[in-house]
Amino acid sequence: MHLIRALQSVVLVLFVAACASTREAPRGSAGTLLIVGGGLDNDSRPIYERFVELASARGPARIVIAAAATGPQQDEIVDKTEALRVWAPGASVSAILRETPTQDTVTAIDAASALLFTGGDQKRITERYRPNEVDTPEWLAMKRLLARGGVIAGCSAGDAMMGEFMLLSGGSATALGIAPASGEASIASAPPSEPVQLGPRVGPGMKFLPWALTDSHFFERDRVGRLVAALEATNTRLGLGVGEDGCVEVDLASGELRGVGVSESLLVDVVHLERDGLRRANVIARPITQGATISLTARLAAPPPPLRAGFSGAVHDVPVVEPGQNRQLASWRLFRCAAAPGGSAQRLQLDGWQVLAWPARDDGEVVFEVGPAPTQR
User: In Å, how far are 41, 96, 226, 234, 251 from 216, measured between CA atoms?
Assistant: First the structure.
């Protein structure tokens, strides 16, 4: 077992090294990505309207729903088709399944102006359309869709698979290397005969987004710790954590990102990251509000932003009340309060780990650290 885990670690290191030199290279694509954090309700007007607008930018909208990630594929196709009929009554809407033959899949994508990946398990997407990082005919058709100015949208699992790498599963505590508390979901999902895997669970993604690693259900499932650990492990500088019913749009020609959904997202930058045991410090973050724009390419090309590595004054402990949105959005409150004008230091203690954040400057960015809760240091 130890030998197998060691070999897996070596493979991941080699894979990261091979990709690191090309991750930020220009791709020459004219298309758009819509990255939806999950929980996409049918009445999420800004997201659906923007998707339809992009799908019809060069003619009548021809939308294909890709349900490969979803367990009950037909149910999800019905749901998304009915939602699209509300926002685009005259659009052509079809679907491709995991079982759809290659030629039929390629034909459908080549005729499309937009592709919508549904939620579920992101490994099903890569196993079907880019197994072992092979440029399959289906994946090449998706790249042609982007090259001709089309749009690829992904919800939940469709969010997670967008980048060079993707997070596979697991919670923040285990990703940070902290033995999880009994209530963490990753324990329940692990086979009883196997120990809980510590460290971020990362694999190759679909490689549509060259500049960042993405994560879904971000605030609701307290995933900032696992995103930081995954960025460190994959040598990726930028991360995008998208909240439920949240959405960010990325123009692949310009590298510009824009907040679309009413729910917010978070840009994470580990350019100054410092590691002390299980603690990761000096991480920068910026909340992404609806309508806000950030140039990913300009940020990567510019000198790293200055870092305010310390803070003064009292620390506000963000309360958590079970159950409900107070618990689900505690991470969001922490970053928004730290980023607000005149914001103060905020701390959130969770299942064996914590987040501590404070204002970086007066421009809406924050500095934060993640690591073991004080009782486990």
Answer: 15, 23, 11, 18, 19
